[in-house]
Amino acid sequence: MSNIHMPVYLLVVLLGTALVIPLMAKMTNRIVNIFLTYAIMIAAILSVFTLVNVLLNGAFTYHFGLWHPSYGIEFVVDEFSAAMTVLVTVMSALVIIYSFKDVEHELEGHVIPGYYTLIFLMLFSMVGMTLTNDLFNMYVFMEILSLTSCGIVSIKRKRENLMASLKYLMLGAIGSISILLGIAFLYMVTGSLNMTISYDLIQNAWSIYPRNILVALGFILTGFGIKAAVFPLHTWLPDAHSTAPTPSSALLSGLVVKIYIFGAIKILFRVIGINIISEVGIPLFITYFAIIGMIMGSVFAIGQKDIKRILAYSSVAQIGYIILGIGLATESGLSVSLFHVVTHALMKSALFLSAGAVIYQTGKRNVNELNGIGYQMPVTMTVFSVGALGMIGIPGINGFMSKWYLSFAVLEAGRPLILLVILLSSFLNAIYYLPIIINAFLRESKDRENILERDQVPKSMLIPMGIIAGLCILFGFFPQLIMGVIERAVLTFFNI
Amino acid sequence: MNLNAAFIYQNINYVGSSFLFVIGLYTVLTHPNLIKKIIGINIMETSVFLFFVSIGFIQGGQAPILNLEGKPVLYVNPLPSALILTGIVVAVSITVYALSMIVKIYEAYGTIELDEIMKLRSEEANE
C-alpha cells in the first residue's frame, strides 16, 4: 500500500484541487464542499501512509526527474518531514470542514471559490516547504506561502484587512529577500543548493570562508525571524491574524508560522550544522529573543480587548517557547520545540475556532461582552476553556506536557534561570485567559437569563472543534503518542 | 583584506548590489508613500538578483551553449541566472499584488500616504 511517489501525489492532489476549484464556481456550494472534503481527506490519508511507511521502512529521498541531487530538486521524506506533513494535512482537514459554514457567513459569495483556491495553494506550499531539501526550492515554496497567506488576509475586503495584508506583504517581502540574499552567500561558498551536499561542503569551508557563512546566517535568521514573528519582528502578526477570516486565522497561527520555523531549523541544523552554530554562539542569541518574546507577547495580550487580537498576541508568546527549544540546541530542546509546534497548533486552532463560533453566533468580538456566554454556547466555550487552560499549563492538557518537557530540557541544558521565565510566562497567560473563562461561565449577562441551552452553531463547526479539543486532552494524558515520533524525527537533525 | 581601488573595481557588482540593497531598505523604512515603499522593495529585490547572478559570472567566460568544435571553453555558471529567472517572476507577482492592494487602499482611505492613513485609523479607534 505504500509507494515512493506518495509525497508527490500528495502535492499533486493539493495543487490539482486548487486549480479545479475556480472551474467549479457555477456549481452549488454543497457539491464544492463535498469535493473539498474528499480532496483534503485524500491528502491526509496519503500523508499518514507516508508517515507509516517512513516509520516502518526508514527515510527515503525522492529525486525529481531522476536528476542528480546536485543539479535537480530533491525531497527528503524522513521522520521529521513526514510527521510534520501529517500535522499540516490533518489539522487543515479539520479546519477546512469547520470553515464551510463559517466562510459562508463571513465572506461574500463570489470570493469563496477564490478563498479555497488560496487555502489549497497554501497547503501545497506548506507541504512542499516541509519536504524539500533544496534551498532555492524552499525559497520558491516560501514565496507561494507568503503570497497566498497575504491573499487570505486581504480576502475580506475591509479597510483593516487591506492594511494588515499590505503590512504582512511588505515585511514578508523584506524577509524573503534577506533569506534569498543569505542563500546567495551560502551558494557562493558551496556552489550547490542541495542541503545535504551543502552541509558537507560547509563543514570544510568554515575555516576558509567564515565571513560568508556568518553573513548568510545573519540574513537567513533575520528573514525567518520576520516571517515566523519572533518577538521584535512580530508587528505584522496581530493585525494579520486577527483580521483574517477565522478558520484561516487558525491555519495561519497554527501552521503557517511554524513552517517558517521548520525552514529556520533546517538551515541551522541541516545546512550549517550544530558544531558551527554552537561555535558562533547562535543558540544563546536565539534564547534571548525567545525569552523576551515569551514575556512581552503575553504582556501585550493583556492590554487587548478584541478576542482574536488576544489570541494573535498569545501566538507571539508561544513562538517564544518554540524558539527557546531551538535555542537550547540539544536533542531534548529540539524535540520539545517540535512537540510544542504540534501542541500549539492544536490549542491555538481550538481557541481560534471556538472564538470564531462565538463571533458566528453572537457577532461579539470584545471580551468584555462575553459575560455568560458559556450558558448560551456550552460546547464552544468548553473547547475554548480546554485550549486556554492548555495555554496556561493545567495538567491533563497537552500544553502542560510541553511546559513539562521544556522545563526538563532547560534543566538538562544547565540553565535553571529560564525556568523562572517559563513560570512567569504561564502566570501572564493565566492573567488574560482566565478572565475570559470566568466571565463566560460564572458571570451573568445583562440581556438574558443564565439558562443552559444548546449551541446554535452548525454541527459541521462543532464536530471539528470537539475533535481538536479531544486531541488536546488525549495528548495531555498520552504525550508519548507524538513524542515517540518526534524523538525519532529529532535524530535526523543531529546524526547527519 | 586590502580595500584598494583595483579590488573594488574587480568586485564592482558586489559593491553595487550592497549599495542597492541598503538604498532599497532605506526607502522601504523611511518613505510614508506606499508606492515608494513598493519601489524600495523592488530595488532590494533587484540588488539580490544582481548579487546572485554575479556569483555565477567568470571573467572571460562564455554562455554555456553546447560546444561542438571540441575546443575547451570556459563557461559561466548558468544555474544562478536560471534561478533568478524564477526570482524575477516571484518579484513581479509580489509587486503586482502589492500595487493592486494599494489601489484598494486608495479606494478605502482616499490616500496612499501611510502617516495620513494612520491618523485616520487612530481617529476611528478613538471614536
Count of DSSP E strands of chain B?
0
How big is the Rg of chain B? 21 Å
* Strand arrangement, major sheet of chain A: 1-2
Number of helices of chain B: 5
Biggest sheet of chain A, open or closed, and with what strands and sense? 2 strands, antiparallel
Largest interface: A-B, 27 and 31 residues
**What's the rounded overall pLDDT mean of chain B?**
86
Q: Give, in order, the helices and strands of chain A.
A: HHEEHHHHHHHHHHHHHHHHHH
Helix content of chain B: over 70%
Q: Major β-sheet of chain B, in short?
A: none
The protein's oligomeric status is heterodimer
User: Which CATH-level-2 architecture of chain B?
Assistant: Orthogonal Bundle
* Termini gap of chain A: 29 Å
What is the approximate shape of chain A?
globular
Number of strands of chain A: 2
SS-based class of chain B: mainly alpha
The residue-averaged pLDDT of chain A reads: 88
Structural class of the secondary structure composition of chain A?
Answer: mainly alpha
Query: For the record, what CATH class of chain B applies?
Result: Mainly Alpha
Strand content of chain A: under 5%
The rounded Rg of chain A comes to: 22 Å
Note down, in words, how this protein is organized:
The complex is a heterodimer of chains A (496) and B (127). By secondary structure, chain A is mostly helical. Helices cover 77% and strands 2% of the residues of chain A. Chain A has helices spanning 6-20, 29-57, 79-106, 112-131, 135-154, 159-190, 195-205, 210-227, 236-243, 246-272, 274-280, 282-302, 307-328, 331-362, 373-376, 378-392, 398-412, 417-442, 459-477, 480-494, and strands at 60-63, 74-77. A two-stranded antiparallel ribbon of chain A has the order 1-2. The longest helix of chain A is centred in the middle third of the chain and has 32 residues, at 159-190. The model of chain A has no long low-confidence stretch (mean pLDDT 88). Chain B contains five helices and no strands. Chain B has helices at 5-10, 12-30, 34-56, 78-109, 114-126. At the A-B interface, helix 5 and helix 6 of A face helix 2, helix 3 and helix 4 of B.
